[in-house]
Design brief:
- Mean pLDDT is 86; it is low at 21-25 and 417-423.
- The protein is built from seven helices and 20 strands.
- The protein has helices spanning 3-25, 92-117, 122-154, 159-218, 263-266, 393-397, 401-406; strands spanning 30-33, 35-37, 39-61, 69-72, 79-80, 85-89, 220-222, 227-231, 247-261, 274-278, 284-292, 303-310, 321-338, 343-344, 350-355, 361-365, 367-372, 375-380, 387-389, 408-411.
- With 423 residues, the protein is α+β, with helices and mostly antiparallel strands.
- Helix 3 (122-154) runs antiparallel to helix 4.
């Protein structure tokens, strides 16, 4: 080997030793991350949406008779009870019609009493008298005919006299049969028919009287519910337009938020689920789901959901918009981590970066459940008390497994809240 070759080999060996030395001296990669503990906590599946408030009950009272307002007994904002008189309309013409109908009813009642309590109606009495008279005439004709037959046999009278008596007897018998039949018919039907006619007249008069009284009562408008007067558009002397209410009363002791959710969200809800209504003040008001519509709104392809809440203090005002939180499911003891600690691969798998006690990262495949307010339920892959990386976790997730195994993390210090500046 020449000196030149020996020098080249020596230089190459020196370079190799130098590179290996530099590799051994290169420090481990360090990534700064925020960490969060895996906690055992309650988590809820909450569906959030916007809703419009309605009173539990509302009565926009449209008068059934058209008449000017006579007197108003309440003011806007006044609380009223069911059955309380709130507005009175002019009713003098209606009062007159009601008085006339009552008089007609009194007359019909009197006629009915007379007919039902009479012992023998006049027509029946006349038929009975006619029947008695015909019977007497028939008996007399029979007696005459019998006497003439006897005298004819004795030779005292001619055959013609017997024949005349027989004709008179036949006529008397016919009259008697006719009167007797009429009397019997009247005995069987006339009284019932007269009573039926009197009853029908009385009932018709009673119906007219009740109708007139109802018309009169319509002039007195009373509240059908307990509530608050929210609208009173007319003054005394004014007449409401056809179909327009004269007073509106709302029961605001309970309010209903009507909201719309997607069909998939609606499938998770049921009547009785807890809910919260959040008004302008930002304070949640507890509520309950009272309706999950069975049909889909054709215009929006959504499902209407009602949530009802107590409103004794009147802070929730019908007609206003509120935020609605519908709690579909609650898990009281769930493993939860911040949502920023959940890493999703391009194929859809979910992972978390666990930081051990030596500040070394370890990639773990996890299964997730409920997500709510920035927290995620972990149903598999983690244990309570472990720490997961949050901010900075994605930088670790992008590293190759070999590089990740050599990487060490640095825990970022906790962020202190800024104190307000003194003025």
């Amino acid at each position: 080997m020449t000196a030149k070759h020996a020098l080249g080999i020596a230089l190459a060996a020196a370079v190799l030793v130098s590179c290996r030395s530099r590799q051994e001296e290169q420090p481990e990669p360090v990534v700064t991350v925020d960490v969060a503990p895996v906690l055992l906590s309650k988590i809820q599946r909450t569906i959030r949406t916007e809703g419009l408030l309605y009173p539990r009950q509302q009565a926009a009272i449209v008068p059934k008779v058209s008449a000017p307002v006579k007197k108003v007994y309440v003011r806007r904002g006044a609380r009223v009870r069911a059955g309380q008189l709130v507005v009175e309309l002019e009713d003098r013409d209606l009062a007159g019609a009601a008085a006339e109908s009552r008089a007609s009813l009194d007359l019909a009642e009197a006629t009915f009493e007379t007919t039902s309590k009479a012992t023998v109606p006049q027509e029946l009495q006349k038929a009975e008298l006619d029947s008695r008279a015909a019977k007497e005439a028939f008996d007399a004709a029979q007696s005459v005919f019998d006497n003439r037959q006897r005298l004819y046999r004795e030779g005292a009278i001619a055959q013609k006299d017997v024949n005349d008596a027989q004709v008179n007897l036949s006529q008397a018998r016919s009259q008697y049969e006719t009167s007797r039949k009429r009397f019997e018919d009247l005995q069987g039907f006339a009284r019932d028919q007269e009573i039926k006619a009197a009853t029908a007249q009385r009932n018709a008069a009673r119906g007219r009287s009740e109708s007139a009284q109802a018309q009169l009562n319509y002039a007195r408008i009373v509240s059908p519910i307990d509530g608050v007067v929210t609208d009173l558009p007319l003054y005394p002397g004014e007449t409401a337009a056809s179909g327009a209410p004269v007073v509106t009363i709302m029961d605001t002791s309970r309010v209903i938020a009507r909201a719309h959710v997607s069909q998939s969200d609606a499938a998770e809800l049921a009547v009785g689920n807890d809910a919260n209504l959040i008004g302008p003040g930002g304070v949640p008001v507890p509520a309950k789901v009272t309706l999950v519509n069975a049909a889909v709104d054709a215009s929006s392809s959504t499902v209407e959901v009602w949530a009802e809440a107590e409103n004794a203090d009147g802070k929730l005002r019908p007609g206003s918009s509120v935020r609605v939180e519908l709690i579909a499911r609650t898990v009281p003891d769930a493993l939860v981590i911040p949502q920023s600690g959940v890493l999703t691969s391009p194929t859809g798998g979910t992972f978390a970066m666990v930081i051990d006690s030596q500040s070394k990262p370890h990639l773990r495949k996890v299964a997730t459940g409920i997500r709510d307010k920035g927290m995620v339920q972990v149903t598999d892959g983690l244990q309570s008390g472990q720490r997961v990386a949050t901010t900075g976790a994605f930088e670790l997730f992008k590293l190759d497994p070999e590089v990740l195994a050599k990487t060490k993390v640095q825990i970022a210090p906790a962020k202190e809240e800024e104190e307000p500046e003194e003025s």
